[in-house]
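Data deposition worksheet. Section B asks for the primary sequence of the deposited chain exactly as it was used as input, without tags or linkers unless they were present during the calculation. Section C holds the resulting structure in token form. Section D is free text for depositor observations; keep each observation to a single sentence. Incomplete worksheets are returned to the depositor.
Section A, Depositor: J.P.
Section B:
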Amino acid sequence: MTTWKVPGMPDEGRCLVMGVVNVTPDSFSDGGRWFDPATAVRHGLELVEQGADIIDVGGESTRPGAARVSLDEELARVVPVIRELSQEGVTVSVDTMRAEVAQAAVAAGAKLVNDVSGGLADPAMPRVVAASGVPYVVMHWRGHSHAMNSEAVYGDVVTEVREEISKRVASVLAEGVAESQIVLDPGLGFSKNSEHNWALLAGLDRLAELGYPLLIGASRKRFLGRLLADPDGTPRPFSRSDDATLAVTTLVARAGAWCVRVHNVGPNADAVRVAAAVQGAGA
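Section C:
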């Protein structure tokens, strides 16, 4: 297993854990529980206590069908939270598709930009990231939330995601982003159905061959609830898929993922340490 070192990020010699703080009223996973900025900051600090290495702050829901918020609203949601968490010594990332939000977030203390569109939603994003020097998560993406499900058409999902994300990497490199800044995310659940998600998890080695660290975000996503559906076919609620998330974390950490993005941090922080111990014993 390769132990990735990403500039400006914690170096623990194992898969890192990114805790999610959604400063939104309509998140699919937590129903807006952290929408108030003070509550969001407290939650971020709690996740650090539970073992999170990075706190990912987002102000715009990317669930299927979600409508976009205005630039001003997104800034008002995330910047105060990022500033306060950063002042507490927390390593913070910003989850945004907007260059202006990324720039303001970095100025407030964010150390990583997590862009689910891989620079497609805002052409200015790669230049902002290049100028900032912070790591940049380039996710595989085919369209905004209102249209993503219609784009979930593949012949060979692993091959096509690999090819499409490679093109995005080439594009952001051409805009001045350094190779050392790039982290890849296969975009589980984004323009992908359950079958596609499982195939991508099984094919992580082919994505790792591209030579960049991998961030995996499977936490509480619909494909887990559908796998664990009741006998009548009713998917398991998001809040009851944490054990399945834990299983994915263990598998991808063992496979060499750089980081996992999760909602329920404590058990996942344990899982990455277990995976690292097994990996170390077999070295």
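Section D:
The beta strands are 16-22, 54-58, 92-95, 112-115, 136-139, 182-185, 215-216, 259-262.
The chain has a mean pLDDT of 92.
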